[in-house]
Amino acid sequence: VSTMEIRTHLGSNGRVLIPAAARRALGIDEGDELILVVEDGEIRLRTAKEAARKAQALVARYSQSGENLADALVAERRHEATRE
């Protein structure tokens, strides 16, 4: 994990310029979707792709090897429906 600290300014209409070095480090381009998180007095930006990657990694920790979680959920719901 690398850390980069770059100063920037708040512009008109609350816009923040993300300097080129930071955009390159994140691999983002104009129009890319970003997620802004406000936590403990800080603002964090992450790409939607990175957020999805982290969510997938979190879910993968709870799935069994090779298991399709969507199929497992549907099967569980069907089993519960037959018991009602």
**What structural class do the secondary elements suggest?**
alpha+beta
- Low-confidence stretches are none
Cα-atom Rg, whole angstroms?
Answer: 20 Å
Strand proportion: 5-15%
Count helical runs.
3
Q: Biggest sheet: strands, sense, closure? A: 2 strands, antiparallel
Helix and strand topology:
Layout: H1 20-26, E1 34-39, E2 42-47, H2 48-60, H3 69-83
Antiparallel strand pairs: 1-2
Question: What's this, in brief?
Answer:
By secondary structure, this protein is an alpha+beta fold. It has helices spanning 20-26, 48-60, 69-83, and strands at 34-39, 42-47.
Task: Please characterize this protein's 3D structure.
- The chain is an alpha+beta fold and 84 residues long.
- The protein has helices spanning 20-26, 48-60, 69-83, and strands at 34-39, 42-47.
- It has a two-stranded antiparallel ribbon with strand order 1-2.
- It starts with 19 loop residues before the first helix and ends with a helix.
- The mean pLDDT is 87.
Key features?
84 residues, alpha+beta, two-stranded antiparallel ribbon, 3 helices, 2 strands
